[in-house]
Design a protein that fits this description.
Layout: H1 2-17, E1 27-32, E2 38-42, E3 56-57, E4 66-72, E5 75-80, E6 92-98, E7 102-109, E8 112-119, H2 127-131, E9 134-144, E10 150-159, E11 171-177, E12 181-188, E13 196-197, E14 200-201, E15 205-211, E16 216-222, H3 223-233, E17 239-240, E18 253-264, E19 273-280, E20 285-287, E21 292-296, H4 305-314, H5 316-335, H6 339-354, E22 356-362, E23 368-376, H7 388-401, H8 404-415, H9 445-463, H10 467-471, H11 473-486, H12 506-526, H13 535-547, E24 562-563, H14 565-572, H15 580-594, E25 607-608, H16 630-633, H17 652-698, H18 765-773, H19 782-799
């Protein structure tokens, strides 16, 4: 234990040596594990102290009471939560940093310093651990700033605000303790099963737990009284208030723990003080039309919540070790690209995994079907379930961490669409009650179908597991036939997943070609003799004739002043190594917005290029930022696809010719898209130079901080089993073809303004025209664009020498 403590202290100080003195992000992840256990800290104060504001739900409109106090030589200092009136004793945040799994604050309270770490474990290859809806808060790394000894006690509590959105809701609570641990449990007196109130769960059981140790005390009751007793005595009285009441009644019911660490000197280092917070829901989702309900995957291993809490607390040391490896792996790889890229991955990784529930099916008789199914909520935009556009955007992250995640996300979509002529954009518009998709999905059919085919093939190619494409081969083939018929001659009411017109949309056509290409490769993998995709030859030629003008390949001509940071980051993965300056500028622009704590969100999905402000209802916490892993996913090897054969190879020679044609078409279109991206970048740079003087007066560049810690996924320890034995996919294998379409997956959506499909008006042609005209000093017609393209080759070379900063944000 002593060696482990020394090791972790050394790792932390190595991390701080590379970190900036403060976090400059506006919204810091604290407890971010599931769609409903999603607590953040609003970083609005220049001191960047977690003791300035209360933690908030990810929507930034709901306080989650979570307090922390440290008592040094009889003086109390608050280190977490809004000011509690502790006689002016304030803590100071000496340093702070963030990794993919942790947010760490170095706190100074008088002569004592310590680390407060908010730790949300990420276990991509261990579904049991990943599905447990708990996170850790711990303090360690104690030191004194003088040569004296000091008496130190620490305290933390949560309030019942975690149990319901409405603070007038009646709640009840209890506690459990044994020889090693204790937990408080609070829930609504009348839970509302499967109710989502403005993204907040109304059916949750909230737990606050800790390990027993020397000097430990607890109390449940009025938050004012709990804190007052600790401030006065340094301990609590082990009493339970049983006056069940409303969340905001009688000074807010709170559930608290305290630990007396005794006398501390410069050479002493107590064990970490650990708390765990959890938000448990059962069932997690329901299908009223089947009927079927989904419960947490961890229930395959544990029979009751006490065992879950005990296992989670007992696994802390192992979880911390694994997370260090996990963080270091990501940070090491990302830092080879740029430190700013590593910073971005640090703030988006937790929200990718927290958008999902890892489930198994519970039958009406209570029996559990061990088949895993993952359900994703469309965080920050809507309550859609398994939104295809988000899955498509997040694909690089899922492939990078564990391609099996893709299979288990697609399974719920595919199993309910075996007779559908085209793919639906999601499972339905509500979460966690999943109704059949009743929106007018045919308008989104081309976009959703192309995406689903690409995702299915990408999973098979990067995992080597062809079971999904074999099992749903007839469905996928039917969808590909739909694309062949409709993609190049889209119905007039076709729209993209972003709500923009799809007729003669080059981006939509490109995605269709990628989808058809993917089906051709699926045919190859399963041994099908189907050669119907030869039609693509004629369709592709028609496409190039009708849409070949470069003006049709615009990445942002319709909304030129709207930034889509997730697509910008995935676009960076398509930039050749010879154009690193362009790639790094893309990363830098996103980083500049992410680390601007004058804005209310760390990374909204869309924001103004001029001001950095949110566009429409675009929020944060979306899994679509898995697109940022595109640069790391490029290094993933392809694998021989092991699939059940569905036909002979009699059409193999013809199909090879089709594949060659497809590769050429897609490769050519991708190159044109890349050229147009360069043009867009160049034109924006010209525009930014004109406004540079004004913007520099309005905006001060935030300083980045360094993130230096990470984990290797898939380890199984301490009796917590993985859902199944998974083949390690670390060794390279022969590629299926010389062309790698996955490099270009996000390009068809780059320019689009994503909202919940089917729930917003489609922009009129005049509106799009107005947006375009107001953001260009010169005409934007096709002829001028062709002239600019002719000049682009010279400009690309000069862009490498750019030294000006990108546009700032007022």
């Amino acid at each position: 234990m002593v060696f482990s403590l020394i090791l972790h202290v050394a790792v932390f100080y190595g991390l701080l040596a590379c970190a900036q003195t403060t976090l400059q992000i506006p919204f810091v992840p604290l407890a971010v594990k599931t769609p409903y256990l999603n607590a953040w800290y609003s970083n609005s104060d220049s001191t960047i102290s977690p003791a300035v504001n209360w933690p908030q739900f990810f929507t930034n409109d709901k306080i989650l009471g979570w307090a922390g106090i440290v008592r040094v030589d009889g003086k109390a200092y608050q280190w977490l939560g809004s000011p509690l009136g502790l006689s002016g004793n304030k803590t100071k945040t000496v340093m702070s940093t963030i990794t993919p799994t942790k947010s760490i604050f170095r706190i100074e309270a008088g002569p004592v310093q310590f680390n407060a770490t908010f730790f949300s474990p990420i276990e991509p290859s261990d579904y049991v651990r990943q599905s447990i809806p708990f996170t850790y808060l711990y303090i360690d790394g104690f030191s004194v700033t003088d040569s004296s000894s000091h008496n130190v006690q620490v305290y933390s509590d949560i309030t019942a605000e975690w149990a319901a959105r409405d603070i007038t809701t009646l709640v009840k609570w209890d506690a459990y303790q044994d020889d090693t641990m204790i937990y408080h449990h609070v829930t609504r007196q009348e839970p509302d099963p499967l109710d989502d109130d403005k993204d907040f769960a109304e059916d949750s059981d909230v737990y606050y737990a800790t390990l027993k140790r020397s000097g430990f005390t607890f109390r449940a009751g009025s938050s004012v009284m709990c804190r007052k007793i600790f401030v006065q005595n340094g301990t609590l009285d082990d009493k339970q208030d049983t006056n069940y009441r409303a969340i905001n009644a009688d000074d807010w019911p709170a559930f608290s723990y305290a630990v007396d660490l005794g006398t501390m000197t410069s050479g002493s280092q107590p064990d970490p003080v650990l708390w765990a917070i959890g938000l448990v829901r059962d069932p997690l989702l329901s299908y009223p039309s089947i009927p079927r309900s989904q419960t947490g995957f961890y229930w395959l291993t544990y029979s009751n919540i006490t065992n879950v809490v005990s296992a989670f607390l007992g696994d802390f040391q192992g979880a911390r070790d694994r997370s260090s490896s996990f963080d270091n792996k990501i940070m090491s790889a990302a830092s080879q690209i740029s430190s700013e890229y590593a910073d971005i991955l640090s703030i988006v990784t937790r929200q990718i995994f927290a958008s999902m529930d890892f489930t198994v099916t519970r039958a009406q008789n209570g029996a559990l079907d061990p088949t895993p199914r993952i359900f994703m909520k469309d965080m920050g935009v809507s309550t859609r379930t398994n939104p295809v556009d988000v899955l498509y955007g997040a694909l690089p992250a899922f492939l990078y961490f564990n391609a099996t995640l893709v299979r288990d996300l697609l399974e719920p979509l595919l199993e309910l669409q075996t007779s559908s002529p085209y793919a639906a954009p999601d499972l339905g518009s509500t979460y966690p009650t999943v109704f059949a998709n009743t929106s007018d999905t045919h308008t989104l059919a081309i976009d959703a179908t192309g995406s689903m085919l690409v995702i299915a093939y990408a999973h098979a190619l990067k995992s080597g597991d062809g079971s999904l494409i074999s099992r749903y081969y007839s469905t996928l083939q039917r969808w590909a036939d739909f694309l062949l018929t409709n993609a190049m001659n889209a119905p007039q009411d076709t729209i993209t997943m972003d709500g923009l017109p799809g007729v003669k949309s080059t981006n939509l056509a490109l995605k269709s070609i990628l989808g058809i290409y993917s089906m051709a490769k699926i045919n190859e993998a399963v041994g099908s003799s189907n050669t119907s995709f030869m039609t693509l030859t004629q369709q592709a030629q028609f496409y190039l004739q009708e849409n070949g003008a470069l003006s049709g390949l615009s990445l942002d001509s319709t909304l030129p002043d709207i930034i889509y940071p997730h697509w910008s980051l995935l676009t960076a993965a398509t930039i050749p190594d010879t154009l690193n300056t362009v790639r790094n500028q893309l990363i830098h622009q996103v980083h500049q917005r992410a680390y601007n704590n004058t804005k209310p969100w760390t990374l909204p999905k869309t924001y103004s290029a001029d001001t950095g402000n949110l566009v429409s209802s675009s929020g944060s916490a979306s899994a679509i930022f898995g697109a940022s892993y595109g640069l790391l996913a490029l290094s993933l090897p392809n694998h021989d696809i092991q699939a059940e054969q569905v036909g002979s190879n009699s059409g193999k020679s013809k199909q090879s010719r089709v594949n060659t044609i497809v590769e050429g078409v897609i490769g050519g279109v991708a190159c044109l898209v890349l050229i147009l991206f360069g043009l867009s970048f160049w034109r924006r740079h010209r525009k930014s130079k004109q406004a540079k003087a004004y913007r520099e007066r309005q905006y001060t560049r935030p300083r980045p901080f360094a993130s230096t810690t990470g984990s290797s996924p898939g380890t199984v320890q301490n009796g917590i089993s993985s859902p199944r034995t998974r083949q390690q996919l670390s060794s390279p294998s022969p590629t299926i073809s010389s062309f790698e379409p996955l490099r270009y997956l996000a390009l068809p959506s780059m320019s689009k303004h994503r909202e919940a499909p089917g729930h917003h008006p489609m922009p009129s042609a005049s509106a799009v025209s107005d947006l375009t005209n107001t953001n260009s000093a010169s005409a934007t017609g096709t002829e001028e664009l062709r002239v600019e393209v002719a000049q682009l080759r010279q400009e690309l070379e000069s862009m490498r020498r750019l030294t000006d900063l990108p546009p700032g944000y007022a």
